Amino acid sequence: MKAYEKEHQSHGAILGHGWDPKRWNKQVAEKMLEEYYPKKAVILFAADRSTCIMNQIARDIYHFTSNTCYPEKYYRIMREYLNDREFIEKEFSDYMEMMNSRGVTTVKEMGFDDFYGFTNFLKEIEDSEKLHLRTFFMSQPVGEKMNLKYARNMRDMFTGDKIRFSGFNCMTDGTIADHKGDLKEPYEGKLYTCGIEIPYEEIEADVLAADKEDFRWTLHAQGDGAVGKITSIYDKCKKENGKLKNHHAITDMEFTDPMDLETLGEIGAIAELYFQIMSLDSAKVLLDNIKSTIGMERGKNYWNRRKMLDSGMTLSGATDLPLMITSVPESIFYSSGGYMDGREEPFQRENTLEVSEILKAWTIGGQKNLGMSDKLGTLEEGKLADITVFDKNLLVIDKREARNAKVVLTIMDGRIVYREG
After folding, report:
1. Domain shared by 75 and 95, yes or no
2. Percent of the chain beyond pLDDT 90?
3. Rounded (to 5) percent helix, strand, coil in the chain
4. Residues 6+ apart with CB under 8 A from 361
């Protein structure tokens, strides 16, 4: 970090990465940060991104601690690095190359508030060869309230097929494993249905105000209680021929009530699903979490993607980067095969999807989500040429072996943006 500081002459905070809590004691580490950096804010993130260490100056300036080290709290540092031109040019270029190597040509990107000036950079590269990843960005109100004026400006500024403003995003409940998911019935052995307070009235007011001006919302929900409340909110939004006009979506949808899924299908809501979510823990951890929080009987509706699709919802692949990096082969292994790491037999095969349905979720489903299905998502004459080629036929491959498939070629707008080797 000292060498980096000397080379780059950083004027703001110094941000480090790779701290291993198992190898470097937090108290010792923070004492060293205070000793070596008595007058400059320093934050060192853990290798697994779960937490960080920081000196007192950093805590005073950015108003978060190692106990609240997550994006919605450390957003104040983003204004610094998103306006560091040398930093963002390389990082965004590396990001695009990494996504292209996974066969990705379009992303729905999250940003807080007004993106802290990063949209100026996006506008600059919008029509240049430097851009090889279609970027549809959403604003997540964090440091300020929902900003409709900003949304209108972004809608007017970006009207092409490569960069567009895609509406607003918000978290509702948290993880069920931590008892922060909002349930309809109490947790196993508990008297409560959610361990946190969720401002549903504020969320509903924002969604309806944005919907009135034809901006869409994506709300993250894990528990069936949260999904049910969001269903009620979306049902109040504008419709055309009985379907939501503005492509509102729900992300994650870990544990759901089949009745809500039927309503969401009827009104045309979109499900943004983490098909690789089972890769984050072993089968034992995942199953123990389900058993201890909601029980195996309610657990029959865990990851019930089959019911979502059968109810008429549009499915769209998602990853919550950097938690998971997009992988269509992994998605097939986990959400079509139903496999978990460390377990031979599939988990609730009746809730899984066919391989073809997974592929549609990552292609035409994603473009329906972004309102681009008339130009992207299928191979048709007259559509833009975004194509990914794998080294194996994913439709016939053994699902157990699917994870071994690799991308060999990615084309965006008729131009090769990735080639293996």
Report:
1. no
2. 87
3. 40, 20, 40
4. 273, 275, 315, 316, 317, 353
Q: Which two tokens stand for residue 361?
A: 């979720």
Helix axes 118-125, 85-101, angle to 10 degrees: 60
Is residue 37 included in any domain, yes or no? yes
pLDDT digits (tens, 9 = 90+) for 227-260: 999 999 999 999 999 999 999 999 999 999 999 9
Residue 83 to residue 62: CA distance in whole angstroms: 17
Using pLDDT thresholds of 50, 70 and 90, give the confidence band for residue 5: confident
Do 317 and 207 share a domain, yes or no?
yes
Nearest to 106 by CA among 157, 163, 165, 156: 163
What's the total number of domains in the chain?
Answer: 3
DSSP, res 419: E
Residue 329 lies in a domain: yes
305: tokens are: 């993607």
Q: What is the DSSP letter of 187?
A: P
Same domain, 309 and 403: no
Q: How far apart are CA 361 and CA 41, in angstroms?
A: 43
CA dihedral 333, 334, 340, 341 (to 10 degrees): 60
User: Cα(242)–Cα(261) distance, rounded to whole angstroms?
Assistant: 16
Residue 8 has pLDDT above 90, yes or no: no
What is the DSSP annotation of 191-210?
S-S-SS---HHHHHHHHHHH
d(CA 63, CA 57): 10
Q: Which residues contact 270 (CB under 8 A, 6 or more apart)?
A: 247, 248, 249, 250, 313, 314, 315, 316, 365, 368, 369
Boundaries of domain holding 399: 387-419
106 in the same domain as 56: no
Structure tokens of 119?
A: 């949209």
* b/e 103-139 (16+ beta carbons within 10 angstroms → b): bbbbbbbbbbbbbbebbebbeebbeeeebbbbbbbbb
